[in-house]
Amino acid sequence: MRLRLASILGLLCVIGSVALSFAQSQSGGGMSGRAEPAPVVVVDVKGAIGVGTVYLIDEAFAQARAARAGLIVLRLDTPGGLVTATRDIIQAILASPVPVVVFIAPSGARAASAGTYISYAAHLAAMAPGTHLGAATPVQIGAPPISPQPEKPKEGEGAGGGAMERKITNDAVAYLRSLAQMRGRNADWAEKAVREAATLTAEEAERERVVDLLATSVADLLDRVDGRRVRTSDGEHILATRHAQLVVVEQGWKARVLAILTEPNVAFILLMIGVYGIIFEFMSPGHIAPGVVGAICLVVGLMALSVMPLNLAGVALLVAGLAMMVAEVFLAGFGVLGVGGAVAFLLGGLFLFDPAGADIDLSVAWPVLIAAVATNALLLFGLVGMIMRVRRRKVVTGAEQMIGLEGEVLDWQAGEQGGRGHIRVHGEIWSARASQPLGAGTRVRVDRRDGLTLHVGRIGEKTQ
């Protein structure tokens, strides 16, 4: 009896051990009782924030959702960028169900202007030693910068410069303060970064509660944020990032192409190539290559410009400048149209982009503008002028060369509308018709040609 009872107890212990091991293996915790951490998606954001950056981040966020990632790390190093692109990125971060950490790294990197806004929007913000952020004051391209300490306003004016400057500044302050309040960061310094273009080093930013922590690398960052609680669009998350697998998202060809095409100088050059290609195709029909290349470059250039903040006055000046320079070729403008067109074109390129649409110097470089004006003058006054002069020359080949030649009547038969006969022209004998009777030996001139028959008239007269 005792032996049977001992056997039953032993069997129950074995069954219990197997069940416990199975439960632990199902939970993924092993002996530690902790689940395997979800992968962490890492994406590098370098250079100016633009359309290509938005596409890269959207791809990274989509990949993170598909891989059920536990965290997204944006490794940031930027001088600023387009306002619309920055707002798109911030909206993507705020709507992300996966927690996002902005990591300003490596050492020597910065998060200026747009980078400061993106850092404030992140669920967690971190910096590497030797980095800095701030200088979030809106930039007015082509106009004096907003003064950090505005002069005393004149009588009848509000405080702090012009109405437009105050409007832009106050909007930027409210936007950054709202992000700071959402994430529990220093809202007063956020306002200071906008109004006074203030900056902070990594150590100062941690002390001022502008960022949450410092880290030397991505691995160190994952160790430091492990166990932290963050709230995303779908609720609260406890980060489990220690020893997590890293999934690095590389910039694809499409993002690279978008970044190149939306560079102001490249978009401007593509636009010019497109315009000239179309002009040459219209002036010399049949040379298919200029039209094809011009159409492609024009469409790509317009696509690039469509996603950038354009100034309608600059676009109008560009169009007017090109129109005046083309008109100089066809009209006797004594150079006035050409010079005026060159000046309008130069000003149009200078003011092509809207200063309120970016927080960096978004403009066409002076060397590119000067080269474009010089090319305009060379092509329109040189090549196009030569084409027009050639077109005005008398035709010396083909059927049209017969028009205007003089000849001698060999024989003639009177008949309806003057009759018909044969003439010698340019050493050749041709059938001819005339509106009046002619006699052998009469000198005639060719007025037009109808197949192999020439219509002629006496010298000094023309046929009807």
Structure description:
The chain has 464 residues and is an alpha/beta fold. The chain has three domains: 35-144 and 168-252, 2-enoyl-CoA Hydratase, Chain A, domain 1 (Alpha-Beta Complex), CATH 3.90.226; 263-392, no CATH class; 399-458, Nucleic acid-binding proteins (OB fold (Dihydrolipoamide Acetyltransferase, E2P), Beta Barrel), CATH 2.40.50. It is 47% helix and 17% strand. It has 14 helices and 16 strands. The strands form four sheets. It has a six-stranded parallel β-sheet with strand order 8-5-3-2-1-11, with helices on both faces. Strands 12-13-14-16-15 form a five-stranded mixed barrel. Strands 4-6-7 form a three-stranded mixed β-sheet. Strand 2 (71-77), helix 3 (83-95) and strand 3 (100-104) form a beta-alpha-beta unit. The longest helix is centred in the C-terminal third of the chain and has 27 residues, at 366-392.
Give a short overview.
The chain has 464 residues and is an alpha/beta fold. Helices cover 47% and strands 17% of the residues.
Label this structure with key terms.
OB fold (Dihydrolipoamide Acetyltransferase, E2P), 2-enoyl-CoA Hydratase, Chain A, domain 1, six-stranded parallel beta sheet, 3 domains, 464 residues, 16 strands, 14 helices, alpha/beta, 47% helix, 17% strand
Q: Helicity level, as a percent range? A: 40-55%
In the CATH scheme, the class of the largest domain would be Alpha Beta
The second-level CATH architecture of the largest domain is Alpha-Beta Complex
Beta-strand portion reads 15-25%
**Global morphology:** elongated
Q: Radius of gyration, Cα only, in angstroms? A: 39 Å
The CATH topology of the largest domain is given as: 2-enoyl-CoA Hydratase, Chain A, domain 1
Largest sheet: 6 strands, parallel
Provide the spatial order of strands within the biggest beta sheet.
Answer: 8-5-3-2-1-11
Low-confidence stretches: 22-34, 140-160
Average pLDDT works out at 80
Structural class: alpha/beta
Number of strands: 16
CATH homologous superfamily heading of the largest domain: 2-enoyl-CoA Hydratase, Chain A, domain 1
Q: In DSSP terms, counting alpha (H) and pi (I) runs of 4 or more, how many helices?
A: 14
End-to-end Cα distance: 140 Å
**Total domain units:** 3
- SSE sequence, one letter per element: HEHEHEEHEEHHEHEHEEEHHHHHHEEEEE
